[in-house]
Every structure is written in structure tokens, then in C-alpha cells.
Design brief:
This protein is an alpha+beta fold. The chain has 13 helices and ten strands. Strand 5 and strand 6 form a beta hairpin. The chain starts with a helix and ends with a helix.
């Protein structure tokens, strides 16, 4: 590398020094002939000495800047506690390369809705489009921080997979990905629980939108909140609520229904905004966040569990199986998954008493008894 820099600098300096040399004696108009001994003994030595000095100074400056940046990067990564994990993951990938051959760096085109599955130690960069982290344990080598599942992927930021298996990204739009290591794409899957969505609709718990059930897209905070209110049997009270709320990002629906749901839930302490003036209506929820809403509807409080471990808590209580909890946490959370989780909650016992959540809603008059009876088998036998 030093030779390359030297050659470039030599050429540049040669051009400038040559002009100066031939404008001075010897070689001037008074003495137009330059002797070979002058070129060899005087001009060349002087030229090479100056060139070496310029090259050394430039390389020293470059070296200092590289050292400074590496030191800054290293301290940032070490401070975040991800350096050791990144090193272990890369060593694992390097060992795999020796067994299976190289995985060359390449640019992949990944469609909206598809998943990018990354092997341990693989690094990926979003070049265009948009995506969110999903499932696999990912760290950002650029920022030196963990990248939790559900977080938006930052363009041009380099991520590494520290998990032996699982997804890495879920595409929110057609995207281009630069990948170094083992990756494969998994095609977008259609909704699995359309029939269960119909069952919940017949119970008055899930109403969809003007575009139908939209089970293939992510669930939003506002949608999750509305499901919480309905599963507590308090929808009528929410729609009659005339209280105010501090949030500026609530959509305007006929009869101010969205605002009434939010104001009611806020007054009951069911939810808080993401800031003092922003509720985060269109922000997507994770499986743990939605599980938190379900557990609150079933009578559990924040003192019983922490929201980031809500899926594990639901598994411990038999609401979800261990496999279901892990699978929901590792995949992108869709409205399709929301329907399934609602069915699991409805068929499970609430915290107080021996009744299921569905039976509790029937007793409160929030769900029709006949409709609940006909829906019971489908809800109880919902398969992941």
C-alpha cells in the first residue's frame, strides 16, 4: 500500500519539480544543455529526497487518522458490550467458511414481505428500501449497539447476526441488501388465521378496516389498544367516554372513535404514550407489547410481569406454549398473529377466578352467549 501511495506522489511531484528544474540553470536559456551527471547526482537525489519526505508526511497523517477512527470505533463498540459477541460470531463464520467455502459479498434484491435469514457472523447492510429487525440476535457494528427485534433498520448501517439461526430482517418494501456471509430469503407467507378472524368478528371483537382484515400487515399501537379495550368488555364505555387526552397524533374517525378509545384507556391507566404529546398510533407493536395488552385484559398488572418478557410470562401461565412464544418473538408480528394470540387468551383462564376470558366476557354481557358457544371450539382448538 505504501508503494502505491509513493508512486502516486512521485508522479505528481515529478511533474511540478520538472518544470522548476528546467527553468533554472543549468538547462536555462543561457545554458540549454543539462548534463547527465547533473541529472544523476544533483537533480535526482534532490527530487527523490523531497518526494520521500512528502510521502512520509502524508502516510503519517493518514495513519494517525486511521488510528483515531479505529480507537473511536473500538471504544464505542466495547462500551456497548457487543465487541466480544461480534468477535465470537465472526470466528464462527470464519470456521464455517473453511468447511463450506467462501460466501462472497453480494447484493441481493429482496421483495416486500420476504424475510432475510442470516447465519451466525453474517453482516448485512440495507442499501435501499426499508426493513425491520426480526428474530435473530442482531447488533449494529456501525453504532456498536444491540438492534432489538422490531427496530427499524437504518440504511447504510452494517449489522451482524450473533444468532445461530432465525431471521435477520423482514422487508417492509422492495429492498437491496449487501450481504457478507450465509444468507437466504424466505418468501412472504399469506395469512393463516382468516377463519379465526371471522370467528372474532362474529363475537364483535375484531372488525377489520375498509380494506378487510388486512392480516398480512403489522399491527399498530392503536389497533392493539382497541383490542385491549374490547377484550376487557369495556368498548361501550370507551365509545361513550368524553374525557380528553394529551396526544396530537390520534387519527380522526367518525364520531371521534379513535380519540374516545385512547382517552378512555389513558384515563384507566391501560396505556401511556410514547411521549407527552405522541401516542404512536401508527407505530407497529411487537409480540411482547401485544402480549402485555392481552395480559392486562386478563387481569394481570405490571407488577406481575415486565412488558419485555410478556411472552415468556404468557407461556409460564399456559396461555401460549413455549414453542409458540419463541416463534412469535422471532418473527415479524402481523395482524394475523394478533388474531391467533387473541384466541389463545380467550380460551385461557383469567388471573382471578376459574373462568376463561371468553366466559368472563359473556358474563359481563360484552359477548353474546350463543355466538360464544358456537365459536368456542374454533377458539379453543386454534393451532399455531
Amino acid at each position: 500500500m505504501k508503494r502505491i501511495y509513493s508512486a502516486i506522489v512521485y508522479i505528481t511531484i515529478f511533474a511540478s519539480l520538472s518544470l522548476a528544474a528546467f527553468a533554472a540553470a543549468p538547462g536555462s536559456q543561457g545554458d540549454p544543455v543539462v548534463s547527465l551527471s547533473y541529472v544523476r547526482d544533483t537533480f535526482s537525489k534532490d527530487f527523490l529526497s523531497k518526494a520521500e519526505g512528502l510521502v512520509a508526511a502524508r502516510l503519517s497523517a493518514l495513519s494517525s487518522e486511521v488510528d483515531r477512527r479505529l480507537s473511536l470505533y473500538g471504544s464505542r463498540v466495547d462500551a456497548a458490550g457487543v465487541s466480544g459477541r461480534a468477535d465470537a460470531a465472526y470466528k464462527k463464520l470464519d470456521a464455517q467458511r473453511k468447511l463450506d467455502g467462501l460466501f462472497p459479498s453480494r447484493i441481493l434484491s429482496v421483495k416486500k414481505g420476504e424475510s432475510l435469514i442470516c447465519g451466525l457472523g453474517t453482516t448485512v447492510t440495507l442499501l435501499s428500501g426499508s426493513a425491520r429487525v426480526s428474530g435473530a440476535e442482531m447488533i449494529s457494528l456501525t453504532s456498536g449497539k444491540d438492534a432489538p427485534s422490531g427496530e427499524a433498520v437504518k440504511p447504510r448501517e452494517r449489522y451482524m447476526s450473533c444468532a445461530a439461526s432465525g431471521q435477520g430482517f423482514v422487508m417492509l418494501a422492495d429492498s437491496s441488501i449487501l450481504a457478507d456471509g450465509y444468507v437466504k430469503t424466505s418468501g412472504a407467507q399469506g395469512p393463516k388465521y382468516t377463519a379465526l378472524a371471522e370467528v372474532l368478528k362474529n363475537l364483535g371483537l375484531f372488525k377489520g378496516s375498509n380494506n378487510g382484515f388486512e392480516l398480512e400487515r403489522g399491527a399498530t399501537r392503536l389497533e392493539a389498544l382497541i383490542m385491549l379495550v374490547r377484550l376487557t368488555g369495556e368498548e361501550d364505555a370507551a365509545l361513550a367516554c368524553k374525557l380528553s387526552h394529551p396526544f396530537k397524533d390520534i387519527p380522526v374517525w367518525p364520531g371521534d372513535q379513535a380519540g374516545r378509545f385512547v382517552a378512555y384507556a389513558y384515563s384507566k391507566g391501560y396505556t401511556k404514550g410514547v411521549s407527552q404529546t405522541r401516542f404512536g398510533s401508527t407505530d407497529e407493536v411487537s409480540a411482547d407489547q401485544f402480549a402485555t395488552f392481552l395480559l392486562r385484559a386478563m387481569g394481570y398488572s405490571d407488577g406481575d410481569f415486565s412488558w419485555d418478557k410478556a411472552l415468556s410470562f404468557a407461556s409460564d401461565r399456559g396461555i401460549l406454549s413455549l414453542y409458540e412464544a419463541e416463534a412469535l418473538k422471532s418473527g415479524g408480528f402481523l395482524r394475523d398473529n394478533m388474531v391467533f394470540m387473541c384466541c389463545r387468551a380467550l380460551s385461557s383462564n383469567v388471573k382471578a377466578g376459574g373462568k376463561t376470558l371468553l366466559e368472563t366476557l359473556v358474563s359481563a354481557g360484552a359477548v353474546d352467549k350463543t355466538a360464544a358457544s358456537s365459536a368456542s371450539d374454533a377458539i379453543t382448538n386454534a393451532a399455531f
